[in-house]
Amino acid sequence: MSSRAWRSRNHPAYWAFLVHRVSGLALAAFLPLHFWALGQALSGPAALDGFLSWADHPAVKLAEFGLVVALAAHLAGGLRLLALEFLPWREWQKSLFAASVAAALAAGLLFALNVG
Amino acid sequence: MAGDAGSVLKVSVWRSSGPGGVAAGDGRFETFEVPRQPSQTVLDVVTHIQRHCDPTLGYRFACRVGVCGSCAMVVNGEARWTCRTHVDKVAEGGRLEVAPLRNLPVIRDLATDMSAFFDKWARARGQFSGTRSRQEPFAVVEPQSEERRQVDLGIECIGCGVCYSSCDVVEWKPDYLGPAAMNRAWTLVNDVRDTARRERLAAVAGDAGCHACHTHMSCTERCPKHLPLTSAIAGLKRETTRALLRGEL
Questions:
Q1: What is the CATH number of the domain that holds B162?
Q2: CATH number of residue B43's parent domain
Q3: Cα dihedral B169/B181/B215/B229 (nearest 10)
Q4: Predicted pLDDT at A1
Q5: Measured between beta carbons, which residues in chain B are less than 8 angstroms from residue A100?
Q6: Cα separation of B91 and A22, whole Å?
Q7: Mind listing the pLDDT tens digit for each residue in B185-227?
Q8: B92, B183, B216: which to substitute to probe chain A, counting the most A Cβ within 10 Å?
Q9: Numbered residues of chain A with Cβ closer than 8 Å to any chain B Cβ
């Protein structure tokens, strides 16, 4: 697909769709890892504690930050879609994507500030 | 620099490889040089090419003033009415790329076969069904009523196909009715005189109907008349869901 073809998709609602789709796929891909991590508790406290201390590594914290942002973005994007489809149409609804991005970044920032 | 007398525009124009019913991707771009004029539109450019460079160029237009909706093409990647698009606004570095609308078969060069587009209006139950004959008095529709206002938002569609060409869901799912057909259905769902509401909601509730919309909003973004097409589709989503809950579908 040429760059010209992508040009017609370069508008906020299409970006909102992409963010929602990519964050959804990323979260779905993360879920098995999440269950595996919780499953460590089944092998005794030492296994889980070992995993948790590994999770304190700064690189893992950075990945967690991305995870929190993806989760917040997916949640905010989902709320945006519900508002678009169930509330009567208003011009300001076009700005909902900006609000969703702001909410996702705020959640990420809140997480980052609490890491230390 | 744009529009300077004496300057030349380089225009890449899509040429289909053979006449009649060729597949959309079957062809190549051919470059022409067109003299710049003040207030020149993309349609002026295409017309110049046909009259002065290659009389075999196929394209479609009628009114030249944004009323008929027949001259829509893809200009530098975006579907537009060529008659209402000034070259100054879209040319980049003295270059233009003009291609036929996406998601429709090409008849020849820049002219597409819009049969599928209009057939979908019919499939979305886009025909009005009333009860009164011409001998009876006019029905009174209150201009300030919510239904009438919803109709007003969508009624100005002239069927140019820009939304249909800009919609990714049509590309992914060729059966998808598309924004214009569903906008038409939505104006009729809100028409208090119409009697085919149930059949219409059933027509747009299926797999190829309103629920297939991903809310990309490219239709709304690109509509030259700024009609809120995604809102119409969202309205159909709500009404079909309500009808389902009431056991009407």
A1: 1.10.1060.10
A2: 3.10.20.30
A3: 140
A4: 45
A5: none
A6: 33
A7: 999 999 999 999 999 999 999 999 999 999 999 999 999 999 9
A8: B216
A9: 2-9, 11, 13-14, 17, 81, 84-86, 89, 94
Query: Residue A70 belongs to what domain range?
Result: 3-115
Q: What is the pLDDT of residues A53-85, one digit of tens each?
A: 888 899 998 998 999 999 999 999 998 898 888
Comparing alpha-carbon positions, the chain A residue that sits nearest to B162 is A8
Q: Is residue B2 situated within a structural domain?
A: no
Residues B213 and B139 in one domain: yes
- Cα B184 to Cα B15, B61, B198: the distances in Å are 33, 23, 15
Of B78, B153, B215, the CB nearest to A8: B78
- Would you call A85 and B216 a contact, using CB atoms and an 8 Å cutoff? no
- Same-domain check for residues B224 and B123: yes
Indicate whether B154 and B105 sit together in one domain. Answer: no
Residue B97 and residue B215 in one domain: no
Q: What is the pLDDT, as a whole number, of residue B4?
A: 59
If one compares A95 and B183, the residue with the highest pLDDT of the two is B183
For A59-62, the CB contacts below 8 A with 24+ separation are A61/A115
Task: Supply the CATH number for residue A86's domain.
Answer: 1.20.1300.10
Last residue of a domain, one of B82, B112, B142: B112
Residues in CB range of B229: below 8 A, 6 or more apart: B154, B163, B179, B180, B182, B183, B219, B220, B223
